[in-house]
Amino acid sequence: MDNPNEKYHPDLILKSNPCKSEGRKLIAIGASTGGVEAITKIIQMLPTNLPPIVITQHIPEGFSTSFANRLNRISSIKVFEVNDKIHLRNSCVYLAPGGKHLLLEKVASDYFAKSIDGERISRHKPSVDVMFRSVNNVAGKNALAIIMTGMGDDGSIGIKELYDNGAYTIAQDESSCVVFGMPKQAIARGAVCEVVGLDEIPEKIIQFSSGNLKRGK
């Protein structure tokens, strides 16, 4: 039973099985309140020649399709809503559909995304925690995870797992957030490499893509 008053852990949907191997780069972005406009600003500033980008934005069922279409119109990279299983390609963005969780799979060196139903995790569906954990399971230290404006603490479990596994993690700063809840909770968990303003995030994605954004030894 999908009970919005219960706070379920991502274990209910997906067990943690961190990837420890080298692999292709992957970028993951999670956001809630204020995220639609913040993500729009980022995506329209990105060039082509980037690793695949997966996004979980808290959004009601029915609204994610128009959001994906809007992003696709204004950007130089292609944007897809993940409904059926889809192969992740470079210079493309993959958005979790409203009302479903985004999960990733790795086959040989290729990443795939799919959406599944299930309980709300960290009180949300789609859940940023589910996506981040899935990214950690398939990409691990090869990932860049960005947690952005939003209320609550969804994403803080998954981004901590990514951080502990060697991924580069970024939180949006308080001054550029509509609501600082999600980044604040991730920072409080010790899960963030760097805190940056919204305007800086596109450049961080570009730096990561070119190999110029790495964890310190």
Number of strands: 10
Main β-sheet: number of strands, strand sense, barrel status?
7 strands, parallel
Radius of gyration over all CA atoms, rounded: 15 Å
Helical amount:
25-40%
Going by helix content, strand content and strand pairing, the class is: alpha/beta
Morphology: globular
Q: In percent terms, what proportion of residues is strand?
A: 15-25%
The low-confidence parts are: none
- Strands across the major sheet, in which order? 3-5-2-1-8-9-10
**Count of helix runs:** 6
Q: Average pLDDT, to the nearest integer?
A: 96
Ends apart, CA distance between termini? 45 Å
Q: Provide the succession of SSEs.
A: EHEHEEEEEHEHEHEH
Helix/strand layout:
Elements: E1 26-31, H1 35-43, E2 53-57, H2 64-74, E3 78-81, E4 86-87, E5 92-95, E6 101-107, E7 110-116, H3 128-138, E8 143-147, H4 156-164, E9 168-172, H5 181-188, E10 194-196, H6 201-209
